[in-house]
């Protein structure tokens, strides 16, 4: 069983989980509470309290994530653990703890790639996100992270019940909050061959996600109102997905969209975007050939996948 869980950790670390939602049009605004409720779909509501939002552990997590300071992450996780034990009924604290563990999986420091480090964080992410959703069944953003975790656990452990649970969580979140959760459906299949029917079906979620955002102007899932570079990170992820599919004009449009926003000049990852636009034909060709060893790097496997959106 330990070996199986170690395999699960590698799968979890290889594909975006934290940024799966935050760097898509369904972006993560989890660290913040002060968002007008009428900007989200009816029926979507956070259960944050002033006590949790102002808790030093939550403030520490938000500051570390926005600074991209992974050196503080271990201390953040420990502080959130203590907070969760002291305040077991606070959704926000369990959610932040789950996301802090996902951050470690997505952007590990040296030595954190080892199963001994990944296993506790994978289990912690799963368990605390589950608890947060139980405490706040109307915070459907949580489905964007919890659903993929369960699917990948189930696939690695060959546990169909867990796979089914993961997809049920995703479907529940998508039904309630499509502009936030749809992109995670695609990322469950992002590493599948581009001709795989599963990848092609999931690709449709991107179009649905874009349409959902167009229908909900002002939704923090679709803007930089909460996450400092949600729009720019979204462009990188969407462009990479579309380039993998061979959709050249759509990929170019997605990449170029990042440059149209007022926050683009302050984004640290402009060179990443520029390189993709300039090398788009080569990127598509490398995806199209039959040699997977020369596939180009993609945003959902980058060691800066959280920073693309969250770093100020």
Structural account:
This protein has 312 residues and is an all-alpha fold. The protein is built from 16 helices and no strands. Helix 4 runs antiparallel to helix 5 (73-86), helix 5 (73-86) runs antiparallel to helix 6 and helix 8 (143-157) packs parallel to helix 10 (178-187). It starts with a helix and ends with a helix.
In short:
The chain has 312 residues and is mostly helical.
Question: What features would you highlight for this structure?
Answer:
Serine Threonine Protein Phosphatase 5, Tetratricopeptide repeat; 312 residues; single chain; mainly alpha; disordered N terminus
Q: Separation of termini? A: 40 Å
Uncertain regions spanning at least 5 consecutive residues: 1-37
Number of self-contained structural domains:
1
| General form | globular
What does the average pLDDT come to? Answer: 85
| Helical/strand content category | mainly alpha
Number of helices: 16
Number of strands: 0
Percent strand equals under 5%
Largest sheet: none
CATH topology name, in short, is Serine Threonine Protein Phosphatase 5, Tetratricopeptide repeat
Q: State the CATH architecture.
A: Alpha Horseshoe
CATH class: Mainly Alpha
Report helical residue fraction: 55-70%
Instruction: Give the CATH superfamily.
Output: Tetratricopeptide repeat domain
Radius of gyration computed on alpha carbons: 18 Å
**Topology as a string of helices (H) and strands (E):** HHHHHHHHHHHHHHHH
């Amino acid at each position: 069983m330990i070996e199986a869980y170690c395999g699960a950790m590698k799968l979890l670390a290889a594909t975006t989980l934290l940024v799966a939602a935050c760097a898509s049009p369904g972006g993560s605004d989890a660290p913040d509470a002060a968002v007008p409720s009428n900007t989200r779909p009816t029926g979507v509501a956070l259960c944050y309290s002033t006590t949790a939002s102002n808790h030093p552990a939550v403030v520490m997590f938000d500051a570390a994530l926005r600074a991209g300071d992974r050196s503080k992450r271990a201390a953040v996780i420990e502080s959130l653990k203590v907070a969760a034990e002291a305040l077991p009924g606070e959704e926000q604290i369990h959610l932040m703890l789950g996301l802090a563990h996902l951050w470690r999986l997505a952007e590990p420091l040296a030595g954190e790639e080892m199963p001994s480090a990944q296993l506790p964080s994978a289990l912690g992410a799963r368990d605390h996100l589950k608890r947060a959703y139980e405490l706040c069944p109307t915070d459907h953003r949580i489905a964007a992270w919890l659903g993929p975790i369960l699917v990948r656990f189930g696939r690695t452990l060959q546990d169909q019940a867990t796979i089914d649970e993961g997809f049920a969580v995703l479907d529940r979140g998508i039904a309630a909050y499509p502009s936030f959760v749809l992109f995670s459906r695609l990322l469950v299949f992002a590493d599948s061959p581009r001709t795989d029917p599963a990848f092609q079906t999931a690709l449709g979620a991107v179009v649905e996600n874009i349409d959902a955002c167009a229908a909900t102007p002002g939704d923090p899932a679709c803007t930089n109102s909460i996450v400092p570079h949600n729009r720019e990170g979204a462009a990188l992820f969407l462009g990479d997905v579309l380039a993998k599919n061979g959709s050249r004009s759509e990929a170019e449009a997605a990449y170029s969209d990042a440059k149209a926003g007022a926050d683009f000049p302050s984004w640290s990852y402009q060179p990443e975007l520029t390189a993709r636009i300039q090398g788009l034909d080569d990127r598509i060709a490398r995806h199209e050939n039959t040699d997977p060893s020369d596939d180009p790097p993609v945003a959902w496997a980058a060691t800066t996948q959280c920073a693309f959106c969250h770093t100020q």
